[in-house]
């Protein structure tokens, strides 16, 4: 089984695919990931496989033999469908993690066309499956994501005295609510006894209040940071399946 990713970046959806591939390998399956962009890895995760970098110009001719080829974003559905048309014995699937027509680079109508190309789908939440079925006539099977209790658990290092620690991840996306988050944190920072810790790949000029910024963290470092927090803020306006609260 090969999952096709459009890129390798610091995104939750990318991490989900990589961790799912790891889990399948641990279950004894032959699984891997194909990247459509020939760029260096930007996400720090332990992998039990080596991603295959195969740009669109060499896809599907350079694709190794596989029984199941899985699209993971609307940009990957056309090459997956093309590969299936040239290899009749290969099955395809579409791993939906969000409703990309609301935030991707193309409108809903363009994204919806890719659902017709690869109609065998899974979705990570019931609301997402219901939305796709209602709007586009395809009913994905629901396969929910989960938090890893071997990584995300109380570490016993939350301070019982001292400042109240408020932790939040910064994402430069309107749907992630950063325009609401920063003014709220600015107001909170004015109160004594509050410590604000931010993390993530992005920084903003509006961060003009007392805080520390931990930058891009590994998964284990995220878990350790969350374990020290008294309050974790996720200002997202919508998500396919919000893992922050679960973690």
Give the tags:
247 residues; alpha/beta; 7 helices; 11 strands
Describe the structure.
It is a single chain. With 247 residues, the protein is an alpha/beta fold. The chain is built from seven helices and eleven strands. The protein has helices spanning 12-26, 77-86, 108-117, 126-136, 178-189, 219-228, 243-246; strands spanning 2-5, 32-35, 52-53, 68-71, 91-96, 121-123, 141-142, 164-169, 194-199, 212-213, 231-233. A seven-stranded parallel sheet has the order 3-2-1-4-5-6-7. The chain has a four-stranded parallel sheet with strand order 10-9-8-11, sandwiched between helices.
Query: Overall pLDDT, averaged?
Result: 88
Task: Give the overall silhouette.
Answer: elongated
Strand content: 15-25%
The arrangement of helices and strands along the chain is: EHEEEHEHEHEEHEEHEH
How many distinct beta strands? 11
Number of helices: 7
What low-confidence regions span 5 or more consecutive residues with pLDDT below 50?
A: none
Share of residues in helices: 25-40%
């Amino acid at each position: 089984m090969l999952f096709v990713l459009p890129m390798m970046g610091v995104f939750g959806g990318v991490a989900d695919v990589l961790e799912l591939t790891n889990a399948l390998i641990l279950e004894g399956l032959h699984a891997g990931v194909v990247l459509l962009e020939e760029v260096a890895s930007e996400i720090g995760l332990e992998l039990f496989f080596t991603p295959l970098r195969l740009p669109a110009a060499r896809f599907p001719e350079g694709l190794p033999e596989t029984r199941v080829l899985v699209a993971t974003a609307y940009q990957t559905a056309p090459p997956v469908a093309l590969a299936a048309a040239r290899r009749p014995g290969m099955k395809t699937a579409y791993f939906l993690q969000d409703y990309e027509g609301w935030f991707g680079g193309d409108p809903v109508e363009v994204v919806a066309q890719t659902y017709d190309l690869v109609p065998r789908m899974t979705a990570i939440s019931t609301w997402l499956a219901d939305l796709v079925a209602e709007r586009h006539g395809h009913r994905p099977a629901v396969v929910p994501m989960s938090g890893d209790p071997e990584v995300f658990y109380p570490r016993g290092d939350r301070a019982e005295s001292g400042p109240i620690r408020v932790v939040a991840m910064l994402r430069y996306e309107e749907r992630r609510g950063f325009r609401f988050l920063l003014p709220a944190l600015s107001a909170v920072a004015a109160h004594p006894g509050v410590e604000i810790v931010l993390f993530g790949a992005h920084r903003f000029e509006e961060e003009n209040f007392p805080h520390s910024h931990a930058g891009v963290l590994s998964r284990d470092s995220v878990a350790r940071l969350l374990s020290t927090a008294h309050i974790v803020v996720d200002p997202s306006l919508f998500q396919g399946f919000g893992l922050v609260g679960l973690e």
